[in-house]
Amino acid sequence: MKKFLQLLAVVVIVAAAAWGVGRVPSTEQSVNESALDRISKAGVLRCAYIVYPPETIKDPNTGKLSGVVVETTEEVARLLGWKVNWVAEVGFQDMFEGFKTGRYDALCSGLYENPPRAKVSLFTIPFNYGATYTFVRTDDTRFDDSLSAINSPDVKIAQIDGEIGQAIADESFPKAGRYSLPNNSDISQVLESVATKKADVAFLQIAPAQGFIEHNPGKLKILRKTPARAFPAPLMALPHGEQDLKAALDAALRALQENGFVERILRKYDANLDSYILVAKPYQTK
Which of 27, 80, 166, 190 has its CA 20 to 30 A from that of 217? Predict the structure, then answer.
């Protein structure tokens, strides 16, 4: 009897071990669940955003969001059967931090794509290309003949830390000085810095500069009619590894490009497309 009980105990232990190997604990299942599965179950896409008109405009009284990115993101979500929850306002330096804690699923901002940002995030396809121009004081003629004159220690470039103007300065004008503004500064402050002679140059799209120029006539000019740089502007940035979510978002965004929605929204906020370059269609008709 003793030997029988010992044998029975061994059988029970082996069976329990075999059952445990094939079973995944529920906590591990939730950890391994993809963002696409989680969002689809909840029916909600959680977005972080950067206030940067006209991409994202925030009403100071109500907090309501509008703009190119807001309307396009909400239409993308609608096509996928989701709603958007705008959960966090972020700045250019801390915009990816919420990926580490799972605070939000995507940074929905129309953020320009460049290699340093691609190291820490996965981008959807561009929904436009952003045209960035050079702004200087109206009476400053030092750079009229060539942008290369900016690349001098005697010149100061206004920039918000982490914003694309900083990338342009670092890549194309490394010898120039910097007038750096904090991460959460309003984008108009780079223009204010040039107008008040704290800096000499600012790189910015025309659309977000319009308000400042209208309220400060004659102070600034666009240095050249052609953009200083044009960057791909994906609609969203995602955590690395969420390829399934990217594929779904890309499919919805392509549908909005094909049916004309994206161009209509861009022209709604920038009628002449001064700041936006449309993405070329990958085909030709006869």
Answer: 166
Average pLDDT over residues 18-37: 57
8 A C-beta contact, residue 144 and residue 128: no
18, amino acid identity: A
Q: Which residues contact 39 (CB under 8 A, 6 or more apart)?
A: 45, 82, 105, 245
Write the pLDDT tens digit of every residue in 191-224: 999 999 999 999 998 888 888 989 999 999 998 7
* 170-176 LR contacts (CB < 8 Å, sep 24+): 172/147, 172/228, 172/229, 175/151, 176/150, 176/151, 176/152, 176/201
Q: Which of 246, 147, 247, 164 is nearest to 201 (CA)?
A: 147
CA distances from 183 to 63, 138, 180, 187, 214 (A): 20, 27, 9, 10, 25
- pLDDT tens digits along 77-126: 999 999 999 999 999 889 999 999 999 999 999 999 989 999 999 999 99
Residue where the block lists tokens 């010992």: 6
Would you say the pTM of this structure is higher than 0.85?
Answer: no
pLDDT for 118-144, tens place per residue? 999 999 999 999 999 999 999 999 999
Instruction: Name the band, by pLDDT with cuts 50, 70 and 90, for residue 168.
Output: very high
**Using only C-alpha atoms, what is the Rg of the chain?**
25
